[in-house]
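Supplementary Data S3. Sequence and structure tokens for construct A.
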Amino acid sequence: MTLLPEARSVSFDAPARDILARIGTLEVRLATSPAQIRAALALRYRVFCEEMGARPTGVLDQYRLETDSFDAQCDHIIVCDKALTGLDGQPLVVGTYRALRPEKAINGHYAQSGFDVAPLLARHAHLRFCELGRSCVAKSHRGKSTLDVLWCGLWAYACLYRIDVFFGSASFPGSDGARHRLSLGLLHNLAVQKDWEVYAHKETEMPMNQTVPRKADTRAALRAMPPLIRGYLKVNAIFGRSAHTDTAFDTTDVMVITRLNAIPAPFRRRFIAVTGRDLVSAQAVKEP
């Protein structure tokens, strides 16, 4: 097997309970060792810094890692491809997500730097919110299969930790949001109940309703969206009412709120079949 430059090999001798999902050769796990977490940070460096040209404040260039102050409180979810091995014979890390559970959010949330999320959390204080972020996939594995197994892994994680709602920012490339007006307008036009509304902070806010897509433009707007955002649409996610301009990452960010009990039934059946876990019995409290 070949060693791909976008991925990092690492030992995966973790207990079976740390395996969240498995589809084909792709396996989603909770990182349980410093080496596994380091592999996730190294993948983030390659994708965000080397490929996208981002310069966030936590970059450790001498170690080729992308990190920040929230990483220590987060769980790191990693995807490996067991069909591809490095020179040490270990599978390659080809994707990652980080998750901040409510009991670990002792320093607040990363998303608060761009969006006013505190009112949202207060309005739904009876629900368990988990922040997702720093999602990236190696260029060699950016396809439906990796997103599919990642979603199954997130479902298993939600069941494991009794999560009701995932939230966090998702990005369009480039901090000039005008180039994404059609897609942003489509997201803005989605119906959102007032108690689920979220706005970006005024200093970096960009309105999303500058362009109102015509019905004929919907397909073009969807095609122009990053695959991850299209994936959120498929699971009935809610999007914020304004976007955040992130100059450090050179992105235009939108707030995404995924209520697990609102995921369409076909996806729920798929997730349950792959993971063997049913969120219905795991959720702490249902939305009234």
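Construct B, processed identically:
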Amino acid sequence: MTIGFYKIQDVLENYKCAVYEKDVERFLSTYDVEVHIYDCWGNWESKGISTWRESVSAWFKSLREDGVSLKVDFNDLVVEENLNLAFVHCAVTFSAHEEVSGDKLRQITNRITFGLRKVNESWSIFHELSSIPINTETGSGIFNLR
């Protein structure tokens, strides 16, 4: 799927919609083929779109099997952009809703940073870092500081 993202906001909106629709190819269209991701779930890192595709496919499959729709909200969004590079950092909240009833089941908030570059006038994510703060006494993640 080839989509042109001419504004940073287009990238973020596509991310949100693709997650909600559980559309792997639409989601991956947001990323550069050489993407490097440090994710706070599962793997230490993903290098390249093929590795990221495996993780995203498993994530969306688990949501379908659980009958869950996931809504994404970006909060405290900061965008630093120049001609061909941009960085975005924010708090991202993923709220899971039961598909049939729409009832909210759970939510988590973590931190995310995207590094984007513009190629042929279209933005794509080439680096992503997802993190959660850790309680130093228990070693457990703190999922809902917000």
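The CA atoms of residues 104 and 136 lie 30 Å apart. The longest strand covers residues 104-119.
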